[in-house]
């Protein structure tokens, strides 16, 4: 068993191993998970969580790296959670381990964590928010959550950020692909990366059209900006940071930040509750109660719905 | 609202519209679902449920049709539940509506029902067993459940039958594909269809090897037979029926049939319980209780796990 209070204290001092250990405890649903989460609860709520999503090849990792550099110049502590299986950060990497993000590997103000997209109890919807809480409690002021914009759970995670950045790159049909993946609906800030390539202006125009950004909005509504970048040369990255800060300020002004964080917390509670109930029901396999109900169903004495009622009633409290 | 007792009575008399209506009520989770299931419970448990699964192109629909013919010659009432989206029975068809199975379309002793693989509350794991109960209560003595052997829920349904038939066809790599799809573990009877083609013997040998059928087994163990068929010409189909009857007799002799039906009922109860709890949690979205919990989490006063406990305690009693 780990000494959780000591791990938490070390994580708050900026010790990467302690952060890594805590994330492993929460994502693996260890017996100490609840102890860790209870210890972290009063320490969280300070980080600004930015989701970055986009199809493979748009330059998500390069953009994430450039944003880390920009935030580090401001002296902010940054956490990166990469839930993209194709990301160079992938493979259980923390702080330079198998990480190509060499600019940041030796920077003690940056935490990098990758997360496999499969295999966790309850999946990403369960493990990502808890890893974010660890990074938050460890003192990261900005947390960049990089997800590939393919797959419902990845899009869901991105949409659960304080601010969601959707990345695109010039090229025929890219906008259509983004729309298909459902990521066009979730952007607070849009980035057309690789803007030195042909078609960048066309992509931005197409995006502007698809988003209906030309249409009138109610006063006070957020109008998602479209920023053009060449992340590999850090061009336009300061403008992205500026757009993020504007969105954050707008959210704070309109009470949206608290609203989003409550929605995220509610979603997290739901996920944990469903996973817990599923596990409890799973524990009943081979249990006498479920076996007895099944026997009565086969005998035609009971239908499956009334049996499910009895099963649910038996789950109470425990 | 439907008159459920009248629908049930009509279904027992063999009226196809009543059967169709009842299936729609149970798969769509109508408000009358529970009334229907309660009315059906004492009438079920007589049908012999046979699952047929295999990769696309092995001739599942042709084999199903040939089995229907064989069982009809014995004077048995037959139900077909096709949960294969690529099946010719697909598209909400009942009794000839958009069905190419023209041999049986006008036969009042055959019910054919297709089931979409998506869109139902709780998915196939929820709707298929309930549709089977309707066909069972309607007096079908044999129910053939045709599923494409791709995708976890499809394989799961096939494995929940009294007897599972796995179909293959000659061709390189077919066995490997079957193994990958996880369908090799679930077969009680194996059929190599299209046995007039080159490689049928090789496929049967490969299958025999992969299944370890040459190895010794405990006395009384079931040894899955491999039957070669040309379903389009009805060749070998009587042998399949014979193998099914042998398996049924073996199951009855060894208490396996009751055991399997209890396992199926237990699985059904679990699925209904999980779906019900999920829905109840979903109903809490925007609910004051969940909102209040989320507020306390954002304030750092509570962690998501303790919040989930409170949510669960509030759910399971109602």
UniProtKB/TrEMBL annotation, chains A, B:
Keywords: Chaperone, GTP-binding, Hydrolase, Nucleotide-binding
UniProt keyword Nucleotide-binding, yes or no: yes
Coiled-coil ranges from the UniProt annotation: none
Listed transmembrane segments: none
A Gene Ontology molecular function term of the record: GTPase activity
Sequence similarity: Belongs to the SIMIBI class G3E GTPase family. ArgK/MeaB subfamily.
Protein name: Transporter
Native organism: Streptomyces griseoruber
UniProt lineage: Bacteria, Bacillati, Actinomycetota, Actinomycetes, Kitasatosporales
